[in-house]
Structure formats: structure tokens, C-alpha cells
């Protein structure tokens, strides 16, 4: 197996074999973060630019850590410290970065399709999508899948239930694409204004009642109810959303007692999920974050090292 793409722009377009290959390669990188010296020379001499023009904690930090653990030179640019605050466009920003000859640009941007635009602007530089608008967040779906595989031992014949704002979630879109590619059942449950029937076009089952959606779920993923979108009035207010959709330990233990709980973060405790559930034994939230480093190391390695086969034993520093 191999990864046969120049970039990672989305889960869309990946085959089942490619998804499993990315996950198997990621699993090889898990162990490096457990070492006392968490560094291998795989990307020595390579330059990674993390261009995060939208806020991020987990993704930005883990891409930086991943690049440094691979011995690459890592440059981080955030929106607030870049010349985009002076009105410079994304295109001009990227053309200037390109002139400094990076090997890979990791982009987070508010515009859906911004990574596709970059691919055309900098054809000789690898592009990794770290979240583009409402479109995709492929490394998040991969780290979610790696976490599920480690916990449940399989990624087949699963029922994955997404609770919350799937409509405006790139995490939801990438997870839906990944699990439908693998042949799993995917459910979305939220108020009707958010859980549109158009999700059914993607092969997703749509529910408006949490108690009907949860039975049979192997994985329940809590999606963020974005405060920044509340002016859109998709729900009257977040307190009312919580009355019907808040994930609690008692609801999970009653309707899907063996389910594991995931959340991409950030989470709004008391709106989407209770602290008891988020911090409890069925929660995989922090394991997801740990796996984020391994997945991003794998993606950087496969795109930049020019090799498909990673062997940790050859890579001790
Ligand atoms: N899950 C996720 O993308 O988190 P950040 O926005 O903090 O990167």
C-alpha cells in the first residue's frame, strides 16, 4: 500500500486502502512520542510553514510538535501576527512564503476551498489542509479514526453518531466521508435547522431526537455548538439546545452503554457535553489529542520525505 497524492486536501478522494495506510503509518509514529528523546531525523533539512489564519490550539500545536519531532525546521505564522492584519491577501501571503522555498505549507483558513487555491498557486509545495472553512479537516478525521481503531480494535461495521452542529462542521464532513468510505453507518442528530435532510444524500441517517439516535451507537462524537454562529439563529439559544441534546453519562449509559465518546475540541461543557462524561472513563477526548501528533507526523513524513515506508528502528537519533 502507499499514499499516492501530492497533498492532503481532504478525505474526499481517498480510497479505503489509502485511509488504512495513513492510519497504519500513524500507528508507527505513536511510539516516538513515548520515548525520552522524542525526535527522529526523518525530515532533517526540510522546511514546514504552518500558516494558521484562523484560531487553533490542538491542530496548530500538534503540527508544530510533529514537525519538530521529525527534525524539520518549523515556522509558525498566525493571523494576528501576519501582514494579513495590514490587508495582505491570502494569495499574496502565500506567493511570498513560496519565494522562501518551503517543502510543505499547512493551512488553516476560514474560506472553504482555500487549500485547493493554494495547490494551484504553489504547485511544487506540498499542501496539508488543517481545516478550511466549512469544507474539510482531514487530519482530525484520521486521528479520530486512529483513536477508534485503537479502542475498538476495528474500523468496520461501526455505527458512528455525530451530535450537534454537523451543518457547519468541517470535522463532521471529513468524518462522514471517512466512515462512509469504510462502509460504516453514520448518524447525525441535532435540531432540524442543523440536521438537514441533505445529509441523507451522503448516506447519513438524520435524527432530531437524541434518544432515538443513540441506540446501537459504537461511537458518539460531540460536535461544537459554535458561539460565533449564534447570530444565525439556527437554534433559539444554547441553553435550549442543551435541554434536548446535552450528552450526559446517564443518557449514554441508558441508550448506548458500550459507546465511546469523542469530541474534536474545543468543547463547551454544559452545552454539548457534561464534565462527568467528557472527563469520565468512556471519553477518548485526550487520547484523540495525543494521536493528533502521530497522525500529523505520518502525513508530514509521507508527503515530504519522498518515501512511503517508515521504519522507526532505522530512525533513532
Ligand atoms: N479540533 C481542532 O481542530 O481544534 P483546534 O481548533 O484547537 O485546532
Summarize the SSE layout with pairings.
Elements: H1 16-30, E1 47-52, H2 58-69, E2 73-78, H3 90-98, E3 104-109, H4 114-121, E4 126-132, H5 138-152, E5 159-163, H6 170-181, E6 185-189, E7 205-207, H7 210-213, E8 219-222, H8 238-245, H9 249-255, E9 260-262, H10 275-278, H11 285-304
Helix pairs in contact: 1-5, 1-11, 2-11, 5-6, 5-11
Bound molecules: phosphoric acid mono(formamide)ester.
Task: Give a written overview of the molecule.
With 317 residues, this protein is α/β, with parallel strands linked by helices. It folds into 2 domains: 147 residues, 3-Layer(aba) Sandwich (Rossmann fold), CATH 3.40.50; 149 residues, 3-Layer(aba) Sandwich (Rossmann fold), CATH 3.40.50. Helix content is 36%, strand content 14%. Strand 1, helix 2 and strand 2 form a beta-alpha-beta unit. The two termini are 27 Å apart. The structure holds phosphoric acid mono(formamide)ester (CP).
Question: If you consult CATH, what is the topology of the largest domain?
Answer: Rossmann fold
Radius of gyration: 19 Å
Low-confidence sequence ranges? none
CATH architecture of the largest domain: 3-Layer(aba) Sandwich
Individual helix count: 11
Total strands: 9
Bound molecule types: phosphoric acid mono(formamide)ester
What is the H/E order?
HEHEHEHEHEHEEHEHHEHH
Whole-number total of structural domains: 2
Widest sheet: strand ordering: 7-6-5-8-9
Strand content: 5-15%
CATH homology superfamily of the largest domain: Aspartate/ornithine carbamoyltransferase
Q: Supply the CATH class of the largest domain.
A: Alpha Beta
The residue fraction in helices comes out at 25-40%
Q: Class by helix and strand content?
A: alpha/beta
What is the straight-line distance between the termini?
27 Å
